[in-house]
């Protein structure tokens, strides 16, 4: 079966499976991540503790954060991930997909549609809202490793992505004055204007003020 534009369902399932595997793999064990930072893996503990949280909203957010951290930690371990769109942000989309499948009982076809940009108006609006509030974010990995602040940023990004969906799903369709295309153009311009030291060079931001190697 092919969707509009010739996208094969089997290819979408392959991507979704790889995303799911990265979350599942990251949830299996704790311990330290490789590298000189001595960073402790958080996904395993967060996921276990989420089951004991009685307040539903808090449990939901902790689980979502755990899923995002899990995939990002798999990246730090050198295991297979889906770079969507980058290795540093590889925990965001897998976390949302995993949560929708296992906690929200979303169907496989809905997950496939969620990977297509033109699936629905709410997808474009939620993407615009989420990315609008990521403009100007620095890329400043400590010691050159995609661990600090990259891993935790995936959890923040996953929460922001889901919250953006909630906002877009209840507002009037087409009401959002900031379009996805405008956000992309602004993001490109912001990236060009940003000082080069904040572009994954480890020459600015946390990488400079957190010296640990």
List the helices and strands and how they pair.
Elements (H helix, E strand, L loop, with lengths): L8 H20 L14 H8 L5 H21 L15 H11 L5 H7 L6 H12 L17 H21 L9 H14 L12 H4 L4
Helix pairs in contact: 1-3, 1-4, 2-3, 3-4, 3-7, 4-7, 6-7, 6-8
Brief account:
The chain has helices at 9-28, 43-50, 56-76, 92-102, 108-114, 121-132, 150-170, 180-193, 206-209. The protein has 213 residues and is mostly helical.
Contiguous uncertain segments of 5+ residues:
117-121
Which range does the strand content fall in? under 5%
Number of helices: 9
Cα-atom Rg, whole angstroms? 18 Å
Order of helices and strands: HHHHHHHHH
| Range of helix content | 55-70%
How would you describe this structure to a colleague?
The chain contains nine helices and no strands. By secondary structure, the chain is mostly helical. It has one domain. Helix 4 crosses helix 7 and helix 6 runs parallel beside helix 8. It is globular. It starts with 8 loop residues before the first helix and ends with a helix. About 2% of the residues have low confidence.
